[in-house]
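Ticket #4471: structure export looks truncated?
Reporter: QA, pipeline team
Priority: medium

Steps to reproduce: submit the single chain below to the structure queue and open the exported record.
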Amino acid sequence: MISEVLNMEQPTSNILFTGIMPALVSCVDEDGRVLEDVTRRLIEWHLREGMDGFYLCGGTGEGPVLQPEARMKIAEIAKDTVGSRGKLIAHVGAIDLKTAVRLARHASDIGLDAISSVPPFFYHYGEAEIRDYYTALSDASGLPVLMYASPLSGVNITWDMVDRLMDVPNMIGLKWTSYDYFTMHRIRELRGGNINVINGPDECLLCGLTMGADGGIGATYNVMPRLFREIYDRYHAGDLAGAQKAQFQANKLIEVLLKFGVVAGIKDMLGGLGYDCGYQVYPKKRLSEEERAAFHQTLKDLRYEETYL
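Actual output as written to the record:
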């Protein structure tokens, strides 16, 4: 009887996602059709490199500018390819609630592990409306829900707002894409630490880990998965100097991508590795021939394939 009472009192852990998860690029052609074969091969490469799962159709995956059918197709391909070998989180955020709910329900129907979303965007919504939005996604899916705190949404997610939104059913935490690690740590301490916090900025993965993040989701993990695996593993092994060295090496390439365009550059690099992921969805940046030539020369100077893969 005593053991039954103790078991009833144990809180359910919200720490469902740890480790390294690429924010997977979406492989689509000029007409927005999903490139299934290259998507599968790209996922397989990342799994061989030790990735723990994938974040689908977020900012890097261009979800908000893809058609819902393409987003669902990507999720289906990922689920079929990954199976039980990694975790899958679908970003379902959309400018209208009907689409977001549809994507959330689909994620549940195909057996993904969680959904995520930026707060409702474009119009300026109050906290009560943001809470209603996340509640609708939770009700539609029944899956764990991760907030996506991104400056792209235009919503300033504060630590006390996070605390209140944790009362939304199935809410487990958030992806924190901000350089404000003081606030991230305050969030990490909410609810007695029972909150899943995942680092967003690739160039500061080590900062996030030292301030309590459970793992990382990042764009540039797509083109240097081994190095981000090393940062995470060395940090958890107590090798701070080694983790720092790997982070500084990663940041040299990140600086190049920030100069030329992160998603455009990543897709171009993946094409050079045999994964033709197509171009960014219009009206996002496309590299000109002059930019591409300069970009490739910079990668050559960095010895990208010899050093980062």
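Status: closed, not a bug. The export was complete when the record was re-opened. Leaving a note from the reviewer for reference: The radius of gyration is 19 Å.
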